[in-house]
Amino acid sequence: MSFPEILVGIFEGFRITAAVVFYGLLFAVPFALVFGILQHFTRGILRFLVTAVIEFWRSSPVIILLFVFYYALPIFGVVMSAMTVSALVLGLNIGGYGSQAVRAALQALDPGQVEAGLALGLRRSRILLLIELPQAIAMMMPTLMNLVIQLVKGTALVSLVTLGDMTFRAKEIAQIEYNPVGIYSGLLLAYFIVCYPVTVIGRWLERRVGVGEGQAHGL
Amino acid sequence: MDFNHAFAIEIVPTILQALHTTLLVAVLSSIGAAAIGFTLEVTRRSGRLAGYAMRFVIDFIRSTPVLAQLYFLFFVLPFYGITLPAMVVGVLGLSIYYSGYLAEVFKAGIDAIHRGQWDAAKALGLSGFDTIIFVIAPQMLRNIAAPMGNYFVSVLKATPYLAVIAVPEMLGSGFDIASDTFRYAEPLVVVGIIFLFLAISIAQLVRLLETRLNAAHNR
Amino acid sequence: ETTRERVLSEKTIVIGVHNKAPWGYRDQNGNPAGFHPDLVRAIFEPLGVTKVELVIADFGALIPGLVASRFDAIASGLYITPKRCELVAFSNPDLRLADAALVAAGNPKGIKSYSDIAANEDLKFGATRGSVQGKNAAAAGIPESQMLLFQNTESTIAALTSGRVDAIAFSAATASKVVSDPNIDGIERASPFTGLILGNGKEKVGHSAVAFRQNDEDLRDLYNERLAELRADGTFDLIMEKNGFSKMEKAPDISFSQLCSGEL
Amino acid sequence: MTEGLPPADQNLAVEASGLCKWFKKFQALRDVDLQVRRGERIVICGPSGSGKSTLIRCLNGLETCQQGQIRVNGRALAPGKNNLEIRRSIGMVFQSFNLFPHLSVLQNCTLAQVRAQKRSKEEAVEIARHYLARVKIIDQAGKFPSQLSGGQQQRAAIARALCMKPGTMLFDEPTSALDPEMIKEVLDVMVSLAEDGMTMICVTHEMGFARKVADRIIFMDEGRIVEEAPPEIFFSSPQTRRAQLFLDQILSSDVH
Amino acid sequence: MTEGLPPADQNLAVEASGLCKWFKKFQALRDVDLQVRRGERIVICGPSGSGKSTLIRCLNGLETCQQGQIRVNGRALAPGKNNLEIRRSIGMVFQSFNLFPHLSVLQNCTLAQVRAQKRSKEEAVEIARHYLARVKIIDQAGKFPSQLSGGQQQRAAIARALCMKPGTMLFDEPTSALDPEMIKEVLDVMVSLAEDGMTMICVTHEMGFARKVADRIIFMDEGRIVEEAPPEIFFSSPQTRRAQLFLDQILSSDVH
Ligand SMILES: Nc1ncnc2c1ncn2[C@@H]1O[C@H](COP(=O)(O)OP(=O)(O)OP(=O)(O)O)[C@@H](O)[C@H]1O
Ligand SMILES: Nc1ncnc2c1ncn2[C@@H]1O[C@H](COP(=O)(O)OP(=O)(O)OP(=O)(O)O)[C@@H](O)[C@H]1O
Ligand SMILES: [Mg+2]
Ligand SMILES: [Mg+2]
């Protein structure tokens, strides 16, 4: 197999990679928003619980979670498909990171914004929805792009739970073709091709956020 | 194949034997990543051409999975005559991978420093090197303690990947037990809990450091 | 409904493989291939089970995957060992294989046994994590400092071709398949090669079999009945031949229980 | 919650009595009493940290006092609650403008009208345009805050507050973040509001403005109201030594 | 690189000729000429955006001009280079102080002495203590900038610049970020520096200060030097309409 053939072969796994990313985002985005906001607003024991959930998903190695969810949970009667397990574990892991971006963005907002809203007689929930979130989301878009890339790269682990993603394809080709130079270079290139555009978009957003705010906010 | 608590406790000492490798790799890689990342970012700022080149290097590193990078370093480089021991490849691989992220963290940290600090240093006749070492870096450290700590946790969590290049770290020793005894749930859960414990300890340390830094120079 | 009833009524059996020729893998057209998948097909087809589905997992994930009901049987060259017997229900053995070592072409380090490697601390040895060869090598005295364990067969081979290790060990079947692969240059089978010598002075050999879940013994018994028929009518020999095994490697007619108890 | 206050007086816009406020252990307000008649214009001044901002932030409930009562248009402020009604009847202009950066100037002015006062979109736009014209930045209505100069931003913030048609306006050093030339733009708008009879409570060090429009000047120090007098008297013969010192310092740096 | 400039004159501290400076397409300086004698005290004023900061930042090379030459103490400034020597001979004080927040006041004053001028640690500390005493904050030497008031911070920044023993001091609106009460502290220090005969170029709107110490007032508008006169003449009879207008606005907001 020539190098381009290897690359095409690896890209046969793209559909699975893309599906895991897509379903993963369905878990990640709501989790990040809900838990980021909860962590920002709660105090005391409630905040501790919220933080514990976030830390669990953020701090456990994904590779172990995948294994446990796929191979160990069925013993306790919880059976999920490989795709569900992958999307859930990768999605919530990234969502855990995302929640921190949401919280940081909310905290970084000038408190004067909330005060101005209060002084205008807006309800707290309205202020969150109309004033804080729009600004926070604009501010954290670059971070979110990074998380999307993390998610794409995280899918390299799903071959562990039998899904035929790009890394899996690379291993499969390695099975037919003992050509480590071609295959591992191809693997590197394949992910670069998928992720680099997202990186570029992220950079662009970063610059735009910087300009729109008149100054750079360090998250 | 129920979860056997007695067995889980019995294997803890064996797994802890691999702890020192895991910690050694994590610490060395964190230091390496910070050093390479800082160099990348400072070089990026040093000129227009260097800027574009470093930007691309950083984006390339960030756009490919750590697994693919490790495979590449471990299996491909020897074909070009570079055969490094597994442990060195592991530390180098994680250092390079996370340097791409830390470079971004340093960028944000440096950008957040008021432009006047550069001006003041220049106006006092400090050289570029002195400015970075004595004026910018110490302030940057304070800005980035939190995100940098998060990446150190990530480095720790990434050490299980080194199993693929035969570094005897904790997850690998967990799998060894699993393949000896054919009990998977216990070693993986034990390894997972140790990781969770380590990750949370590091996060807590970082938080402590952060509050100390903030208390020292509260503006 | 037991697994046996389900397999027969749905006419489908799901097998787990670790994607390794000649044991169990997916061929270039995406169909199940390899010695054990062929055997499973030959055994179940006359019973009306027309469909053999493949799930590919890492070797180390095969047993957990079976226990977690991710598939109905492991058909991927698993050896019968007493410890594994505690977790899964093996069929009667089908093949009997010794360990084989692969080395760089010309065997520059002159490796002829596990003990040769153990005796020279400059030599590095590689095996697949969880494989019997890795354990045999350790039992034969190769210390941890000389042993590298890799995630899968390809990595292990890549470690040899890239010069990271001086020798690797597989079952004889895998080794001959690897050596005959036109894509791999520069390595050869160390010959002769002595594996782990047991207390009784004999070389340790492995017996491969198909594995079922422990409470699926009815399915296993059905399989064993059919296996005996195939051994008798010559179909078994054809499947061996098709997958590149020699007659020497046919297991003697013994029962799984003898191997599980460690008698042999 | 209204013990300490006399019965509600229709002529009073804002009443405060016995306000005490602590931040942790630090006491920022000490027993402050204040009565502001409808249409009255009050200027509050005093050294940095004397509690001026804290006082006016308490008046519309942005800070809660641990002791004392506040009544706005006869309604008592409930501590810790979301006093929406009262907040809507008091406009506030901040030192740092606090415009919403993701909304255009017009949207800044209509947001609370539509979402808090349930006006129709059309009505809100009409009112917003009216007040933007009033502060002379109607031509900037479509721009985003970041595209405006400081003076224009502050005028937009004033228009935004006016759109709620508040009975009373609070200003917290509205010109101190501005360049010298822009200060005048904003002061002009404030003078014209004062001339229209708006109730105003204004923290400022612009003594020219104070002299021109204030009915009463309140001088604070260390959380207390130390002196309270009409401007003629305050500037010419401050009663306390602290106010005297303050005036000396604030006026000495400029020479005319 | 010195075409356009007359031969070096030992009596001139700073000479600039034909300076033009663009930010992208926007021209911030238009053909600016300036000669400052040793010991002369210059005040630069003018409306916001007129290029005052840009001009003085050019003088010590913080900005590079696309056209024109600058000579400091007879040495030409090389554009784009790190003119360390020249920078060390000019002290600069910024509007926002720009003290290094992670260093104590004393460390702020010694860092550049040790690293840039290679003085010994002991000598640097001695010099630093001398100048800190000079600006009357020797008792704050061990504190961090965040623990000081604005006026103290600015005085520390002045001491830091003085420690380099510069021939010339540049000030960019040194008091405009300060509270009214603190302005005086800083102006007092500057007046005493002026009395000692230090060459000073100062952007400021403190007209009292200008009147008191300036030998010459330079009025800028739209990147040009529009008017240049001794203070008596500038304040009583500005020659251009633009300067007249500016003076009106800047003086009208305060009343005495
Ligand atoms: N959120 C807070 N937490 C702790 N202390 C506070 C807080 N807000 C204000 N203070 C303290 O309360 C005191 C009064 O503050 P306030 O802002 O009311 O002063 P001010 O008169 O407005 O001063 P300035 O002229 O500087 O604005 C100050 O000493 C200040 O440090
Ligand atoms: N780094 C920059 N990039 C683009 N434009 C700039 C930059 N610095 C200054 N300018 C522009 O150059 C012009 C002159 O700026 P400068 O800061 O010199 O004005 P100034 O007279 O000091 O005003 P102020 O009184 O507000 O400080 C302004 O229009 C400003 O917008
Ligand atoms: Mg205030
Ligand atoms: Mg300026």
From TrEMBL, chain A:
<feature type="transmembrane region" description="Helical">
    <location>
        <begin position="75"/>
        <end position="94"/>
    </location>
</feature>
<dbReference type="InterPro" id="IPR035906">
    <property type="entry name" value="MetI-like_sf"/>
</dbReference>
<protein>
    <submittedName>
        <fullName>Amino acid ABC transporter permease</fullName>
    </submittedName>
</protein>
<dbReference type="GO" id="GO:0006865">
    <property type="term" value="P:amino acid transport"/>
</dbReference>
<feature type="transmembrane region" description="Helical">
    <location>
        <begin position="144"/>
        <end position="163"/>
    </location>
</feature>
<dbReference type="InterPro" id="IPR010065">
    <property type="entry name" value="AA_ABC_transptr_permease_3TM"/>
</dbReference>
<feature type="transmembrane region" description="Helical">
    <location>
        <begin position="20"/>
        <end position="38"/>
    </location>
</feature>
<keyword id="KW-0812">Transmembrane</keyword>
<keyword id="KW-1003">Cell membrane</keyword>
<dbReference type="GO" id="GO:0043190">
    <property type="term" value="C:ATP-binding cassette (ABC) transporter complex"/>
</dbReference>
<dbReference type="InterPro" id="IPR043429">
    <property type="entry name" value="ArtM/GltK/GlnP/TcyL/YhdX-like"/>
</dbReference>
<dbReference type="Pfam" id="PF00528">
    <property type="entry name" value="BPD_transp_1"/>
</dbReference>
<feature type="domain" description="ABC transmembrane type-1">
    <location>
        <begin position="14"/>
        <end position="202"/>
    </location>
</feature>
<keyword id="KW-1133">Transmembrane helix</keyword>
<feature type="transmembrane region" description="Helical">
    <location>
        <begin position="183"/>
        <end position="205"/>
    </location>
</feature>
Automatic annotation (TrEMBL), chain B:
<feature type="domain" description="ABC transmembrane type-1">
    <location>
        <begin position="19"/>
        <end position="206"/>
    </location>
</feature>
<feature type="transmembrane region" description="Helical">
    <location>
        <begin position="149"/>
        <end position="168"/>
    </location>
</feature>
<dbReference type="InterPro" id="IPR000515">
    <property type="entry name" value="MetI-like"/>
</dbReference>
<dbReference type="InterPro" id="IPR035906">
    <property type="entry name" value="MetI-like_sf"/>
</dbReference>
<protein>
    <submittedName>
        <fullName>Ectoine/hydroxyectoine ABC transporter permease subunit EhuD</fullName>
    </submittedName>
</protein>
<dbReference type="GO" id="GO:0006865">
    <property type="term" value="P:amino acid transport"/>
</dbReference>
<feature type="transmembrane region" description="Helical">
    <location>
        <begin position="20"/>
        <end position="40"/>
    </location>
</feature>
<dbReference type="Pfam" id="PF00528">
    <property type="entry name" value="BPD_transp_1"/>
</dbReference>
<dbReference type="GO" id="GO:0022857">
    <property type="term" value="F:transmembrane transporter activity"/>
</dbReference>
<feature type="transmembrane region" description="Helical">
    <location>
        <begin position="188"/>
        <end position="209"/>
    </location>
</feature>
<dbReference type="InterPro" id="IPR014341">
    <property type="entry name" value="Ectoine_EhuD"/>
</dbReference>
<keyword id="KW-0029">Amino-acid transport</keyword>
<comment type="similarity">
    <text>Belongs to the binding-protein-dependent transport system permease family. HisMQ subfamily.</text>
</comment>
<keyword id="KW-1003">Cell membrane</keyword>
<dbReference type="InterPro" id="IPR043429">
    <property type="entry name" value="ArtM/GltK/GlnP/TcyL/YhdX-like"/>
</dbReference>
TrEMBL record, chains D, E:
<dbReference type="InterPro" id="IPR003439">
    <property type="entry name" value="ABC_transporter-like_ATP-bd"/>
</dbReference>
<keyword id="KW-0547">Nucleotide-binding</keyword>
<dbReference type="Pfam" id="PF00005">
    <property type="entry name" value="ABC_tran"/>
</dbReference>
<keyword id="KW-0067">ATP-binding</keyword>
<dbReference type="GO" id="GO:0005524">
    <property type="term" value="F:ATP binding"/>
</dbReference>
<dbReference type="GO" id="GO:0015424">
    <property type="term" value="F:ABC-type amino acid transporter activity"/>
</dbReference>
<dbReference type="InterPro" id="IPR027417">
    <property type="entry name" value="P-loop_NTPase"/>
</dbReference>
<keyword id="KW-0813">Transport</keyword>
<dbReference type="InterPro" id="IPR017871">
    <property type="entry name" value="ABC_transporter-like_CS"/>
</dbReference>
<dbReference type="GO" id="GO:0016887">
    <property type="term" value="F:ATP hydrolysis activity"/>
</dbReference>
<dbReference type="InterPro" id="IPR030679">
    <property type="entry name" value="ABC_ATPase_HisP-typ"/>
</dbReference>
<protein>
    <submittedName>
        <fullName>Amino acid ABC transporter ATP-binding protein</fullName>
    </submittedName>
</protein>
<dbReference type="InterPro" id="IPR003593">
    <property type="entry name" value="AAA+_ATPase"/>
</dbReference>
<comment type="similarity">
    <text>Belongs to the ABC transporter superfamily.</text>
</comment>
<feature type="domain" description="ABC transporter">
    <location>
        <begin position="14"/>
        <end position="247"/>
    </location>
</feature>
